[in-house]
Specification:
The complex is a heterotetramer, with two copies of chain A and two copies of chain C.
Chain A (H helix, E strand, L loop, with lengths): L28 H4 L16 H12 L22 H7 L2 H4 L11 H18 L3 E3 L5 H18 L7 E5 L5 H8 L3 E5 L9 H7 L4 E7 L11 H10 L3 E6 L11 H4 L3 E4 L19 E3 L11 E6 L5 E6 L16 H37 L4 E2 L9 E4 L1 H7 L3 H10 L6 E2 L8 E4 L7 H20 L1 H5 L12 H6 L9
Parallel strand pairs in A: 2-3, 2-4, 4-5, 5-6
Antiparallel strand pairs in A: 1-7, 6-7, 8-9, 10-11, 11-13, 12-13
Chain C lengths: L7 H11 L28 H12 L23 H7 L2 H4 L11 H18 L3 E2 L6 H16 L3 E4 L5 H10 L6 E2 L12 H7 L4 E8 L9 H10 L3 E6 L17 E5 L15 E5 L12 E5 L5 E5 L6 H4 L12 H37 L6 E2 L8 E5 L4 H10 L6 E2 L10 E5 L6 H30 L1
Helix pairs in contact in C: 3-11, 5-11, 6-7, 8-9, 11-13
Classes of the chains: A alpha/beta, C alpha/beta.
Bound molecules: pyridoxal-5'-phosphate (2 copies).
Amino acid sequence: MPEPLIFERSSPGRQAATIPPAEVPTVAVEHVLPERFLRRDLPLPEVSELDVVRHFTRLSQKNACIDTTFYPLGSCTMKYNPKINEDVARLPGFARIHPYQPTEMVQGALQLMYELQEYLAEISGMDAVTLQPAAGAHGELTGMLMIRAYHTERGETGRSRVLIPDSAHGTNPATAKMVGYTVQSIPSDSRGNLDLAALRGAVGPDVAALMITIPSTFGLFDERILEVIGAIHEVGGLVYGDGANMNAMLGQARFGDLGVDVMHFNLHKTFTTPHGGGGPPAGPVAVKAHLAPYLPVPVVARRQAPDGSVEYYLDYDRPRSIGKIRAFYGNFGMLVRAYTYIRSMGAEGLQAVGETAVLNANYLMERLKGAYDLYVDRRCKHEFVLSARRQRRTTGVRALDIAKRLIDYGFHPPTIYFPIVVEEALMIEPTETESIETLDEFAEAMLAIAREAEENPELVKGAPHTTEIGRLDEVAAVRRPNLRWKPS
Amino acid sequence: MPEPLIFERSSPGRQAATIPPAEVPTVAVEHVLPERFLRRDLPLPEVSELDVVRHFTRLSQKNACIDTTFYPLGSCTMKYNPKINEDVARLPGFARIHPYQPTEMVQGALQLMYELQEYLAEISGMDAVTLQPAAGAHGELTGMLMIRAYHTERGETGRSRVLIPDSAHGTNPATAKMVGYTVQSIPSDSRGNLDLAALRGAVGPDVAALMITIPSTFGLFDERILEVIGAIHEVGGLVYGDGANMNAMLGQARFGDLGVDVMHFNLHKTFTTPHGGGGPPAGPVAVKAHLAPYLPVPVVARRQAPDGSVEYYLDYDRPRSIGKIRAFYGNFGMLVRAYTYIRSMGAEGLQAVGETAVLNANYLMERLKGAYDLYVDRRCKHEFVLSARRQRRTTGVRALDIAKRLIDYGFHPPTIYFPIVVEEALMIEPTETESIETLDEFAEAMLAIAREAEENPELVKGAPHTTEIGRLDEVAAVRRPNLRWKPS
Amino acid sequence: MSYLPATAADRERMLRAIGARSTADLFEDIPACARRTFLALPPALAELEVARLLRELSERNADLDHHPCFLGAGAYWHYVPAVVDHIISRSEFYTSYTPYQPEISQGTLQTIYEFQSLICLLTGMEIANASMYDGASALAEAVIMCANITDRGTVVLASSVHPEYRRVVQTYVQGLSFRLAADPVGPSGSVDPGELARHLTDDVGSVVIQYPNFFGHLEEVDRIADVVHAAGALLIVVVNPIALGLLTPPGEMGADVVVGEGQPLGIPPSFGGPYLGLFATREKFIRQIPGRIVGATTDGQGRRGFVLTFQTREQHIRREKATSNICSNEALCALAATVYLSYMGRHGLRAVAELCLQNAHYLADRVTSVPGFHLAFTGPFFNEFAVRCPIAPAAINARLQKAGIIGGYELGRDYPELADALLLCATEMNRRADMDRLVELLGEMVTEAQTVTAAGEGRTNA
Amino acid sequence: MSYLPATAADRERMLRAIGARSTADLFEDIPACARRTFLALPPALAELEVARLLRELSERNADLDHHPCFLGAGAYWHYVPAVVDHIISRSEFYTSYTPYQPEISQGTLQTIYEFQSLICLLTGMEIANASMYDGASALAEAVIMCANITDRGTVVLASSVHPEYRRVVQTYVQGLSFRLAADPVGPSGSVDPGELARHLTDDVGSVVIQYPNFFGHLEEVDRIADVVHAAGALLIVVVNPIALGLLTPPGEMGADVVVGEGQPLGIPPSFGGPYLGLFATREKFIRQIPGRIVGATTDGQGRRGFVLTFQTREQHIRREKATSNICSNEALCALAATVYLSYMGRHGLRAVAELCLQNAHYLADRVTSVPGFHLAFTGPFFNEFAVRCPIAPAAINARLQKAGIIGGYELGRDYPELADALLLCATEMNRRADMDRLVELLGEMVTEAQTVTAAGEGRTNA
Ligand SMILES: Cc1ncc(COP(=O)(O)O)c(C=O)c1O
Ligand SMILES: Cc1ncc(COP(=O)(O)O)c(C=O)c1O
């Protein structure tokens, strides 16, 4: 059933909210606020509490989600979000504390953050961590600003170029540009590694950094990662590691041990904080010691209190810091969830995550590589990239059509058309929380669709057939923008 | 999509639960429990946490519910269940207390119960309340046992008959029988009142009680209620008031003032505790003073503590009590919700509930009475009963068909085939939490179905057409009972 | 008003449509003398006020997160996995009602079918219903059912059955011609099958035992069943479902009806309710059992679906001939138990049961190491045990309460002969440190009592 | 392992299918020297252990339910209606991701469209995006956007803007050729439009003010807008959305971009995050704005539906030419705000804003009645005000903390000239009794200080 807008449910005089009477003697508003500051009207919806509940509950049911659907959205690590994480993040002692409370009154929060910094450092093999960045892209910005500060402090202001593989996520080049760098794209070779020759050709004293995703967005581990990193270091550049795909690496190898100088985590991918329909995410950044002075303020630190007890505090006294990257200290609620997850899993649990994520991906790849072209045919890590170019050429069926057809089979489609260098890309990341039965069901659907593409391409091109609404006119959405409801 | 049974999702070795290690030195189980007491196997499902979550989340979406759908199920008062009630009932200080804790450690719980007893007494005009009955039917049992105890104590053991209107809910006669009474059904008259002549003819010294629902299950207030009650009292019988329909009476008139001796509330109807797919309910019972000695133990009471403060306690010292009606003290979690609701509404709020519930029902009745036969054409209270006999005779379309067709229109059907004395009954209770827009939409659907019944009866008889599953074979369900999954 | 959408204009419009001047018109059928629109209730509160009020009330209770607790006695403090509350908080489950319309209630129906299946597995029985109010009322209904089946009005209720349960049975059968027979429980604290045989006159319809019994001990269910069946009666067994994670199910030992309190299966103690009455029996009694039952069947296209079935037993159809008056049940609690059992799984439930067993045995060992404390009964026990104390149990509990500890159940409440005994319970939630602290406090109390006595004696001597 | 379904048998089967002997085989592409499977982390905990651990950690924080709080300064303690958390706890909302597939994401898409609409209504602007990380980063992006639009690299940041926001802007523009101009805020604590005009050289791309400003006072937005526009620059206004329940929206007073922290709209303070960056502007800047935007359109059958639109601004399409690098945003917080604003409605939001105003004015009256306390600035304020104290603010806060009260924000942290000032805030959550208690304590401190001084003077005299 179509659901009207909440505004369309409005009826004058209805109100869900109940407002307590003032406990204090009141003043006339106009006495304390001059007339010109008083708004005339605010046409928010006027609805009852049941209207609100029914509206949003009905809308919710129009979403696919992890809790109902296999969701192999590549590069997004749509793994199960444990329920206990949700519960603990809502404890009053976490949800109902003000960021400016005296540190004595938030020792639990600070301890949690401190320990999380330590855990992330251990997991990544880095030396220091900031929990502040709100997202992966925000972490990239933080990290690249630190690289910039590092070079600047050393007087190397001529470093203006950042090298980025052509397979990189869009946030990498966009970030480099926000930090004032020019971006140079480096091609990949036929094994999905960075083209080392091209890289060698591109490096030079004006290179500030290489931003590299490990494993790459092809779902591949660069077989010459040490050479790649060495090539940058040789010319005095630094290596930014995009850790969005870190799920594959958990308990297997550490960014720090590979030589990465700075990296970000996506807690909403690797560490099970929920994706929330687009966020809130969290993108802590970890650095090697040489970059630690530049970390944004504050860092959560520990010291001995005068009475000998351990005390956690916010360290603002960091003169070489890049400054503040957001208000307050990060998406704390997400940090609570990630902390809970790490404590639930322990070292062996995390190692099993990495192992199983990779095993699941390889298994699914094996099942599908006959029916679809595989971008690179070698062991993948957490995900793999198929191409529907064969289907497109022989039947006109595109990756988009396959994605839509998967909806009819009860699955959320994979990421499509990314990495952009892969023609008709289908990027599939099953994650470790899915069972072999689910992988098999998905594989059967993909194989069935490959057959349908041959036997009945129109069926696939017309998909989805089972949803309440069909493919939407995106061109019209731009031509005649309708971006908000307006009171009539 | 069909959802397999949780057993069908099972795979040997999977486990959602995490179990902490014992903190104590352990003993070998066989040392403390003889072999013969140790079970060999327990083939519970073996599934992961995501399996559990996905299974039950998917199943949930196969339900209609108040939060998504207008649900005018007559006699059930499917009103909005406030979210705040759910939150407060889950506070650790309510959800995590043991019933046998010393009363000093549960003063908050006892105060809440005490005050709720007082509020319910005030709302109903009765003198004393027990919160223990777990449900309406359980309240009936409690109340009828008290009536029995009352008569027995007065030596009137010859009272063996209970009079019950033919419109009564099935729990009334079933309860009377559980208490050892024989049931005599009393017909209703053409205005939906109890047939006073028939009642007068039926009363006698062997009558223990009349069980009467106010307003009746026709949604009507008996216009001669005082005479009816008087007729019973005259012969020494007592009047049991079934308060399941009390929503209509809130802040309008009180059972006690009408002369009722004992009654139950359905907190899950009138007082917004959620229906939970069938329960948990709560059915407190209120009595006049002459029945108070028989209340089940314990009653929550208040006294002055030695230090002068107020103290709440569980009063077990009630020698004439009928005894215990359940373990512990009632469905406490539901009591918290009902208390919260009463405090949220206040007296005027509750009065508005009664008024609006009745207004909504009359409005909807007005809109529908042309297209369907009205059982009795006079002002209704919280609900009204239509008959589809006209449709049945002229088109073969039955109440059941109309109900199923309503599903296609996005509504939960009303109660059907009850009261049993109404041919092809459709019992519609809109409640006060629904808006006029929703009532109008429902009315349009009902009118459309009336037209469909004439123009295209097969469409209605084949309904629902929009659900995942069609009408189910109930005869086969009894002929070849399949009441559980069995390990193979 | 938050929950009432009708605006003044809506009211006007509706009144006009029905031809009434005011809503008062709608209540004209109520005798004027009985009209009363004034209620003396506290004023309405805004949501933030009511939230604060209820939080404050709740904080006047000592919650189990912050107070070590050694109470069991029919309500148990087990860990409720997060998943359980998340599922039962789905609107679709908790704001729907009895699944009368199967096409839009398959969620509830399938979960009930799964619940019935799980309870059958757990108890070893053939059929289970969709739930009863609680363990005690389930027992009362079982007793009535057995009397109806056997047409014998006497019931033997072992005194090792929960005292409240026995009282509830008594209340339920007040109006029926029932007789409660004498008690077959001897000084051992458990039913003596030989002794029981002597009670089994031919008017006995059912015998009720509890497993583990109220004192935590294991009744000899199979031997008892033999005796009961030999006398033509039926055996009702009251169970703790967590214990069945470890124990041979009564269904394998001859029970005819298994009832019990399902609260330990993912339902918080909540001061005694809402809980979950379990009811399972043999298939042949299908037409005699109380409560709702769900069955699997198919639709016109052969697709599996679930429906309420065998409804002709129920009050809404059979009225005074129904097997019981129950209508609403404890569906959402049954759902909680279904999620709980699915989550625990084959090995998890056993593991939790073992933890309870280990903790209880550690506790028993340690407590009885304190001079003067000894077990009231011998024989195997599960997660509870009765301990005789050298100090008045009430005094012990009062002292523990001061230390923020919730002590044991005072058996003297129900058993005069056990006036010196406490029933102590441990589950997976009891921490070793708390048990050690309990024992330490008991030790202190004993020492103090001895000092006092010594001092007293000293005085006497002087 | 709770979250990993793969059993040993499953692993075997998968390994066999892919022709590997062990999972180690799958990591052969990692240089052996970098392989490291050992992590020094605390051992895995069972759910009940982790739940206990986190509860204990949380209880080492002083929560606002139990501690009266007078802190605002960019994060506010408002009542969150129960409905909000129930809705955002729906799995369908919180376990889905960015709605790339509109056919199965209409729930998220429609709520974002509603969010955009609500933010436009609230701010008086024409378009709003789907959210930014927080108020501060939204401001930084706005500053960059305005520089791109105007091609002018200087920004005027009034010092009456939240100090952290200003620092974040500084951080964001480090790599860009930006200049931060001098401050137009005089001793009045608000922007002086005349003074501002003097700063507006022709390289100024944007001027940033806050409304109400960091000291709680109302800037003269319309007069400032005139000055800013006359200089060819754009005006960015940082808002508190609750205040807009009462205040004339910046959109009606000439703002070009409105950003702000959406946390007060139904999002708990949570030690500073996750919060909600609001971003609204004029329609003509649609192709310059950062972040996601949802638009309404139709499907092949003319049915209304919602899609992500104007995606060519975004990093996943435009890469280094994108308007911003933002990808994931604060969608679930935006949903919370959408539910909150729908629930509050036309009159409710105003009523809450009024309660804040009333409480803050009562508090200001009472605090300034204590000898030595006086308002730092004059002019109208909303729910916060700066008060100069006769005692060191840190000492006051320390004393309040002892009494379980969370005091005000010490303005000396950021404004040396306000070293003697506290920023105090009141919302609808502050109880009169707590405000009175605060004032009482301030009074006591003053008396004590006088006594000490007097005593000290006494000593000197002696
Ligand atoms: C490889 C990669 N890098 C960076 C990002 C950016 O992370 P976020 O969306 O948290 O900003 C993503 C996720 O979308 C990603 O997949
Ligand atoms: C009129 C009437 N009486 C009694 C009952 C029994 O209430 P419960 O289902 O709570 O046992 C009901 C509800 O079903 C009812 O509608």
